[in-house]
Amino acid sequence: MNQTIRVVLADDHFFVRDGIKSLLESEKNIVVVGEATDGLEALEVVTTTNPDLLIVDIRMPHHTGIEVVEKLRNQNNPVKIIVLSMHESEEYVLKSIKAGADGYLLKGSSKEEFLKALHSVANGGKYFTGDISSILINQLTSSTASTLEPKPVLNEDLTITKREKEILTLLLSGKGNKEIAEALEISKRTAEVHRFNLMKKLKVKNLMELSNKATEYSLI
Amino acid sequence: MNQTIRVVLADDHFFVRDGIKSLLESEKNIVVVGEATDGLEALEVVTTTNPDLLIVDIRMPHHTGIEVVEKLRNQNNPVKIIVLSMHESEEYVLKSIKAGADGYLLKGSSKEEFLKALHSVANGGKYFTGDISSILINQLTSSTASTLEPKPVLNEDLTITKREKEILTLLLSGKGNKEIAEALEISKRTAEVHRFNLMKKLKVKNLMELSNKATEYSLI
DNA sequence: TAAAAAATAAGTACAAATACTTAATTTTTT
DNA sequence: AAAAAATTAAGTATTTGTACTTATTTTTTA
What are the Response regulatory domain coordinates in residue numbering (chains A, B) (predicted)? Predict the structure, then answer.
């Protein structure tokens, strides 16, 4: 469980790298296995050293840290990544999350927070510093806010079968019975029956109600 | 700007309150103006002392901390609120956000983080500890994830009229042409025409595609 | 106050969905 | 191996929507 965490540092400033390195190496189960001074080098070093964790600065020559995250994720590289940033920036934070970063720290964070983040990310968790939490909360409370509602659970014995779920998905994507029949290689009449049963089970009387209910109970 | 921050503490454990109090009072521009040992008392003390900030524990007799937040927000009380929790709990975190809390800390947080949270919340910010960031990120990346996508904007000259928007809303709520006609006191044929025009404008060929496109472009 | 845009509504023919029921196969669970 | 559940599919009559076009009346905007 408490194996050595192999880390790569990517930051174009020697002092920053050195600072982080000395901080990390005060911990005995962390070892810095590589360093990079720009985005391209970061990708290279990660590919060759295969570390557990990459700590990457956003502002770097030849690809930003966020681009590095994107590229690694597109390659399905499972390395954990903590993004470092100078200031709170909504754009950077959201882009990092979207790109698939596991953590986000400000350069001003304390040694304790740094290590906490590092360990939780290395263990498969996420750590986005409280300093940027307002950005996350904004995202969550703006928009539909539906995300915050505890999703209602389907009551009692209501069971939607596998096949019905397939039909439901196709229905919600805009397919008609005929298209569904073709897609699943069944008769149009069968598709109709599945649709009918779905509507009966969910007690709805038309497609839109079906769609609404399906979304409400996150059936898809 | 750096005025004294007036704080109320609500926690049913004397030791916790006392610990926080001594921590806070080591800061010179923070003063604890009230304490409460349960939810009801918290509401009372906040109402009478009108503090800048309430630090409230979740688990308390007579209304949980979250219920206290809800009640204060329903009364439009502008007090800033930091919720304290023993452990990371998705349910508690999400409920706190929904109730309108400005911050969320674990009881194990460091003195530094505590004070950082307190100051940023007192200054109108939000502070949700990094320890629970995985919950926030989950919320943001699950669901439609649409929250992270820049919402596409309707192209060019495409204009949906007021009436069409009304029809659209009714359509998406599951109404048929006849029902829409009745609701808007127009002929069923008129409702049909509006629906037809909508579908033509949005280049869709059935209700579900209309629904999907409407959602995608947040037309409703 | 024109001109443009929006809302209203009818007609027609055709396509699709609704609302069931019945029933033969498969597949899954016990 | 039997029972239960799921999938398949057909029949029938009725309702609703599709895909237009044409045209009058209101409302908005220039």
Answer: 6-122
